[in-house]
Design goal:
- This protein folds into two domains: about 170 residues, Thiamin pyrophosphokinase, catalytic domain (Rossmann fold); about 70 residues, Thiamin pyrophosphokinase, thiamin-binding domain (Jelly Rolls, Sandwich), CATH 2.60.120.320.
- The chain starts with 5 loop residues before the first strand and ends with a strand.
- About 0% of the residues have low confidence.
- It has about 250 residues and is an alpha/beta fold.
- It is built from five helices and 14 strands.
């Protein structure tokens, strides 16, 4: 009997914030998804290769969006997005990434250039594009950290907004990952290490249950108290759930 092919469907959005260790993770994911010059690293020995890039049981539907300055990261790594959106004010030119080279690349990429003065951020437009294309699982890289911390908070707002539209968005940083839990339950493997902070974004979150972490809790959380910060994985299966409210889950490798 033939196995039913599994589908890996996800949008990946790359923003302008500088990346640390997560850059290598992003590049590996993009190579696996079929972006870039695969021939450079392909051994053509499919029998022993462990990448899984040609396994029939995994269908990959990946849509890569560059949010403004994220285009620079991709071009420097000889990669092209499926779509570019932004006002082009955060692309950093240098001897390698010249303005002429960027303009030439943009001419070959489906794109939407928007005014600098607008009511949404470039990342907001990128997430809206992914949602419009039918992608409800989204990874954001280059969306936190950097000099403009206001954009990190704005991206958390975006994650909260789209969680209520049925999207699962994870924002990846250097040793950090964030996601939203809205009227839902999240389970965690016993293999996870590091810390988990559970932060209330709504005025109040009722029916909060935290199990299997160092500090367990049942009750309510509010947006003006730091009770859920800096919990720890302890080698057990764990879970966090909330009946009514919005929580920000922040994973940190410590």
């Amino acid at each position: 009997m033939n196995q039913i092919a599994r589908e890996y469907k996800q949008a990946i959005i790359i923003g302008a914030s500088p990346m640390g260790n997560e850059a290598a993770q992003l590049l590996a994911l993009l190579r696996w998804a079929g972006y870039g010059a695969q021939e450079e690293s392909c051994t053509h020995d499919c029998a022993t290769c462990r990448s899984g890039c040609r396994k029939p049981e995994m269908k990959k539907d990946i849509y890569v969006i560059a949010a403004d300055g994220g285009l620079g990261f991709l071009l420097k790594n000889k990669l092209r997005p499926d779509f570019l959106v932004g006002d082009l004010d955060s692309i950093k030119y240098d001897d390698i990434l010249t303005e002429a080279a960027v303009k030439a690349a943009i001419g070959e990429i489906p794109h939407e250039v928007v005014p600098v003065e607008k009511d949404d951020t470039d990342m907001g437009l990128a997430v809206a594009k992914a949602y419009e294309k039918g992608y409800h699982e989204i990874l954001i890289y280059g969306g936190c950290g950097g000099a403009r911390v206001s954009h990190t908070f704005a991206n958390v707002q975006l994650m909260s907004l789209y969680a209520k539209k049925g999207c699962q968005i994870q924002m990846m940083g250097d040793g950090i990952r964030m996601e939203i839990l809205w009227n839902d339950c999240k389970t965690f493997s016993s293999a996870l290490k590091g810390s988990l902070s559970v932060i209330c974004l709504s005025d109040k979150a009722d029916g909060v249950v935290i199990r299997g972490l160092k500090y367990e809790y049942v009750g309510s959380l509010t947006s003006d108290f730091t009770l859920g910060v800096s919990n720890s994985f302890i080698g057990q299966n764990a879970m966090v759930s909330v009946e009514d409210g919005t929580l920000l889950l922040v994973y940190e490798k410590v």
